[in-house]
């Protein structure tokens, strides 16, 4: 334990995702790293999870009665993942009401390690400008490169960022697309390290697909990115839906890993935004207002 | 028709897609949920390849595993010009075999480091990175001396061979395993040349060549 651990109370008091329940064998101890601390966790078959600071009497791979573990951290199962906190988290995690809709496909597309700070990864998730260049012929294509005017607000009641009226031409917006279409997007940032995206469903124009990225901060410059899908698709096998999302994320990965500096600078003068970066500007301001220091370069006060 | 059992983020699967695209042949894909599903260790897949590894192809009932072996097969069968795997040139074939084995070494090091960082494989990542740097140094010097003699490709020929295809993917993806390439300028130039071959396609994590002059 030579590295300094997280001292940021805002981040310590958040819920953080650890792993997809579907990929965690029931009743068996698993381990991961959260905020530079080794964390043990387990789930049972009935929707209960437990997490604790890793300890010798509960080594990874050992069998465990999840309900009987003592000396644990707060734990919660939500949206297909087990979440914990190293501080005093709020009772509830941010809502995603669509997750309860029975006809949706709810999947962890993948959990991937990325050599980037969580805030840089959120910012990339919010950015539409890179679609034609990074996700060529899937989420964008030249000459449809313009990011049209959209609205951003920081909702005081819900304490989240909301970007609406986003619209982008996409050659293949999802696994059930049959061709290019103008796709409507809504972005929410309800948690400093989580974002939820809503986009037009190609199969039902009244509804939206939901794709969320939940970032588990391993340290200030490394994350485990959990990609949650909650989409309308009655045609494709799970693995086809996962593959689509992994293809997109795999295209983002080298971009994320080459960001410099790795931590997100919050000083408005540190990096020059363009109009299309409105949501990123709001995100940086929101992090500053909250006093987040972990994974960012705070503005000089 | 060729069926490729494929995982999008696999460099070893990508090298087959790349060669098939350059040869202009068609194939169909059966996606295998390598991660997180570990479908390559499932019963149905182990019947196809008892080693539990991707890629595998099925060409009208002829099932073949191992990326390098499949490159040999595809080039031998589907390259009418016979340049990717020149069956009439013993020395060149020997060289190609040597560099196909070298490509396996790249998989065992650079790809292992990438699996460790991205997909949480329990490997000794420092050893994997050191091993990759050792191989990259050897390849960089080989390519640099080749350039001095007017040779653009890994083997002694005036055209690329499957040795180039075999080595390319996990070199291009090395940064995902924490292995930068800035110390290997000849490798970087060679990668750029390869990206300008007709029929070149990308995979996630590999970008097309920039708009510089065509090679």
From TrEMBL, chain A:
Annotated Vanillate O-demethylase oxygenase-like C-terminal catalytic domain residues: 115-289
GO molecular function: oxidoreductase activity
Keyword Oxidoreductase: yes
Keywords: Oxidoreductase
Keyword Oxidoreductase among record annotations: yes
Family matches, as InterPro entries: Cholesterol_7-desaturase, VanA_C_cat
UniProt cross-references to Pfam families, sorted A to Z: VanA_C
Coiled coil residues, start to end: none
PANTHER family referenced in this protein's UniProt entry, alphabetically: 3-KETOSTEROID-9-ALPHA-MONOOXYGENASE, OXYGENASE COMPONENT, IRON-SULFUR DOMAIN CONTAINING PROTEIN
UniProt name for this protein: (2Fe-2S)-binding protein
Species whose genome carries this gene: Kumtagia ephedrae
From TrEMBL, chain B:
Species assigned in the record: Kumtagia ephedrae
Protein name: Glutathione S-transferase
Location of the GST N-terminal domain: 1-82
UniProt entry keywords in alphabetical sequence: Transferase
Molecular function in Gene Ontology: transferase activity
SUPFAM superfamilies, per the entry: GST C-terminal domain-like, Thioredoxin-like
Keyword Lipid metabolism: no
N-terminal signal peptide: none
InterPro entries for the chain: Glutathione-S-Trfase_C-like, Glutathione-S-Trfase_C_sf, Glutathione_S-Trfase, Glutathione_S-Trfase_N, Thioredoxin-like_sf
Alphabetical list of PANTHER family matching this protein: GLUTATHIONE S-TRANSFERASE-RELATED, HYPOTHETICAL GLUTATHIONE S-TRANSFERASE LIKE PROTEIN
Top-rank taxon, per record: Bacteria
Domain GST C-terminal: 89-212
